[in-house]
Amino acid sequence: MTVNHHVRVYKSEETLPREEQLAWKIAEVAADPVPVDADVVDMIINRIIDNASVAAASLTRAPIVSARAQAQAHPVSTGGSGSTIFGCAISDKTSPEWAAWANGVAVRELDYHDTFLAAEYSHPGDNIPPILAVAQHVGADGAALVRGIATGYEIQMDLVRSICLHKHKIDHIAHIGPSAAAGIGTLLGLDVETIYQAVGQGLHTTTATRQSRKGEISTWKAHAPAFAGKMAVEAVDRAMRGQTSPSPIYEGEDGVIAWMLDGPDAAYEVPLPARGEAKRAILDSYTKEHSAEYQAQAWIDLARKLHSERPELGDPANIASIVLHTSHHTHYVIGSGANDPQKYDPKATRETLDHSIPYIFAVALQDGGWHHVDSYAPERAGRADTVALWHKITTAEDAEWTRRYHSIDPDEKAFGGRVEITLADGSTVVDEIAVADAHPLGARPFARANYIAKFRLLAEPVLEAAEIERFLDLVQRLPELTPAEVTELTIIAKPGLLEAAPSPKGLF
Predict the structure, then answer these.
(1) Which among 234, 253, 343, 349 has a CA at the least distance from the CA of 296?
(2) Which CATH superfamily is 294-433 part of?
(3) For 377, which of 138, 155, 343, 504 is 20 to 30 Å away at the CA?
């Protein structure tokens, strides 16, 4: 059964044995050699396919080209055989922390992989690049990789269930540092003490502000989780060498909770698996059918439905106003409640448009769908009728949708809302949606066939047909893979594709 761990701030004169610290409890979960359930293994395979999909679609985008160039500038470190870089030949390896960096940026760039939302929000698939990079470097087999990924998902999602970061303007990567470090610890079979030190360092080095997701959003949005993964790899390396971490990292008087989160009087109940309990958190996460912020997924599906039923709604001349009644989080993070003028700016960056539900709903309502490239194109954002419709759309917090957003009951938890469209003639159109079509409780839940279809769609322009089949055949045998086959768990771009993307020069 799951055990809730009471976490609070301790004054320096109070005694808190490290065995009672959250970082130690996390390390105990990571070190527990519990078998991985078959349905969890299947979902891990799905998410590796999902990561490869979005990475493939990003191979020639500027942040990925930059991160890849940095990784290629660093040779394989002496402690292992190195790690592969998405797009590059299998023989073109780098040190594991730099592979975690380059591949992490590729996975996050399009904001198009899996998600889990609770007290905090997250993309738990961000754990896969650093854990896979270390597995390749040390020669781990597929079974060990599966165990490591199961831990990474479990720890990040359990932290996300209980500890809110964004309320205090701390970026959500602060939950990735500890989770990726724990996952690597499981992969390597490290002892509790070593994982404990790595978890502490993983958290300490990844607490950053949420400005990376505010205002005019920069390319750092894609780099931030990759940085956390890179820090996790380095934290494990230091811990294995006997180096220690600030302690207690969560509960200390000058620690993360006291000064960055809810303050000295804070208390949390963090759920973690009991000893011997299987790590099944990944099954509570969900992927994206559309390349947009997760809170936009259901709204895109509702707009797609309305486009089909009432195509005249896409003409701004027919519309007086559109109000999306939704949760506090959606209203204030990607809605008009953010008070970000950039969310209504036709010249805003792709990253900013991705965090503008008024823009996303307008385009999906007009187009009847969403495309990971075309829907963000400058000419699409600047189209006069789209701008006119876009500026008639606002959001409003609705207490019931906020309550459902934060519900711990999976049958009640919702990420959508109710749309009220007032037409020019004074009549109204009202509709609602609770979860995205691809959600496990949605109209068309994603299954293995959907993950494979998504991979084929995004990979076909950049990978050879034989390479697509090679990767799919390999990844679906994940638990039985030999160390040599784990090294091949990457994607190789079509000849000349990477060379055609200008590589920026830096220090390395």
Answers:
(1) 343
(2) 2-methylcitrate dehydratase PrpD (3.30.1330.120)
(3) 504
pLDDT in tens, the chain (508 residues): 799 999 999 999 999 999 999 999 999 999 999 999 999 999 999 999 999 999 999 999 999 999 999 999 999 999 999 999 999 999 999 999 999 999 999 999 988 999 998 889 899 999 999 999 999 999 999 999 999 999 999 999 999 999 999 899 999 999 999 999 999 999 999 999 999 999 999 999 999 998 877 667 788 989 999 999 999 999 999 999 999 999 999 999 999 999 999 999 999 999 999 999 999 999 999 999 998 989 999 999 999 999 999 999 999 999 999 999 999 989 998 999 999 999 999 999 988 999 999 999 999 999 999 998 899 999 999 999 999 999 999 999 999 999 999 887 878 999 999 999 999 999 999 999 999 999 999 999 999 999 999 999 999 999 999 999 999 999 999 999 999 999 999 999 999 999 999 888 999 9
Question: Do 459 and 86 meet the contact criterion of CB atoms below 8 Å apart?
Answer: no
What is the fold, at CATH topology level, of the domain defined by 3-284?
2-methylcitrate dehydratase PrpD (1.10.4100)
203-206 long-range Cβ contacts below 8 angstroms, 24+ apart: 203/23, 203/174, 203/177, 203/178, 203/249, 203/250, 203/256, 204/177, 204/245, 204/246, 204/249, 204/256, 205/177, 205/231, 205/234, 205/235, 206/173, 206/174, 206/176, 206/177, 206/231, 206/232
Annotated domain spans of the chain: 3-284, 294-433
DSSP string covering 350-390? HHHHTT-HHHHHHHHHHHSS--TTGGG-HHHHT-HHHHHHH
pTM above 0.70, yes or no: yes
